[in-house]
Amino acid sequence: MEETRPLKLYFIHSLAAGHMIPLCDIATLFVSRGHHVTIISTPSNALTLRKSIPSHPFLLFHTFPFPSEEVGLPDGIENISSVTDADQLVKVMNATTMLQTPIQNFVEENPPDCIVADFLFPWVHDLANNLNIPRLAFNGFSLFTVCALHSSSHSSNSLLSPTLPHSITLNASPPKELAEFLNKYLEMELGSYGLIVNNFAELDGEEYIRYYEKTTGHKAWHLGPASLIPRTPEEKAERGMKSVVSMHECVSWLDSKAENSVVYICFGSLCHFPDKQLYEIACGIEASGHGFIWVVPEKKGKEESKEEEKWMPEGFEERNAEKGMVIRGWAPQLVILNHRAVGAFLSHCGWNSTVEAVSGGVPMITWPVHGEQFYNEKLISEVRGIGVEVGVAEWNSIGFGERQMLVCRDSIERGVRRIMDGGDEAQEVRRRAQEFGKKAREAVGEGGSSHENLTALIHDLTRLRDAKLLS
Ligand code: UDP
């Protein structure tokens, strides 16, 4: 059937960088096929997002004022990645709840053909049902992890269900509240028309796609990696937030380094390590003797001068002036991961970071911290063999929770050396990582699996819309 009249889609992102970045990248995929997309956002988030995705006449933002004053937040803090403490985290959550009614009213008055919404907004279910339009859910996880979560429903065991295609034991047991929280939301998303996944079918694997469909009766659409959408180097560098270093500075530093000689170290947008842990990282990376780019989140809320940085071993930056670069704040991660000098990624295994590393063919050194990252670690290390584990045995809470166990400098050094020193294991892991990188790029190209999935999804949505018009 010829798809003539464009679809009208609304994308509703949640207020966290790790969710809104990929969802809005995915929105542009529909635009690139001639469909009309409105991203529902707030002023500060829209400003950031606009800088990192290609502009197009069919891509609009509809913003709702963020209730900063009502919840008691300073202007401009409109997502959980910009908060400075646990109190602000709760305030962003409260603001999110307050946005529900205005968004709902807007959608009811101007209904689209389909809503794509973060799974943290289960109320979109009733909204879409009342309007008789399909809702697609997005949770930002790999399907492997979704399967693992469903299979271990309400369990806080580290040993995952034996019904999964692989026998897997996590390195730490998930906190009971987390398992319950995620399962509640994952159950609710099963009421949607389908799940959009920021991954490509080859990395999750046919076995997990079949497992998901068989055990839930629900459909998953692999449309990623979202990070591979075409964009200018400037858009790449501004993805997520304004970077504290210029892309030029980063690239020219990396240009001066040998191929695969630099470890990139970054723990996403929500990890706040205590000084003692940062100190161990500094010692571990220095002892490994390898080059590095290390992203250390700004100490938010405090006017901390460089002299007061207790986490930095004395003379660390001077000794490593040639070898290392410390970025204090937001880094242009996509630019870094795609540079030939980067040979490994020491990562918290957030799903975006994972799939971005895979797209760049970069092997990972896994250090999960919270959320669903311990599941991602197993996909990376045991299931696909594209990374090695640092050996983290404690699950932390998101944001500003207390940490009991430190990952010591020896484990960090060992993890880095396992990939960066070369050797048979490292070569094999790198070969597989590069192979998956190639598959990722093929998936989003003409005729690739994600490209075809998007065509099929658009076809389905058009059919639903047209059938509704005829009824
Ligand atoms: N990111 C970045 N620069 C940084 C830190 C993070 O560009 O300094 C981006 C990264 O590329 C990824 C996202 O922020 O797209 C983080 O998402 P992820 O799922 O990896 O982790 P989260 O922040 O949700 O824990």
UniProtKB/TrEMBL annotation:
**At the top level of its lineage, which domain of life is listed?**
Eukaryota
Is the keyword Glycosyltransferase assigned to this protein? Answer: yes
Keyword check for Glycoprotein, yes or no.
Answer: no
Q: What is its EC number?
A: 2.4.1.-
Alphabetical list of CDD domains matching this protein: GT1_Gtf-like (cd03784)
Q: Which UniProt keywords apply?
A: Glycosyltransferase, Transferase
Q: Name one GO molecular function term.
A: UDP-glucosyltransferase activity
Query: Belongs to which family?
Result: Belongs to the UDP-glycosyltransferase family.
> What is the protein name for this chain?
Glycosyltransferase
Organism listed in the record: Vigna angularis var. angularis
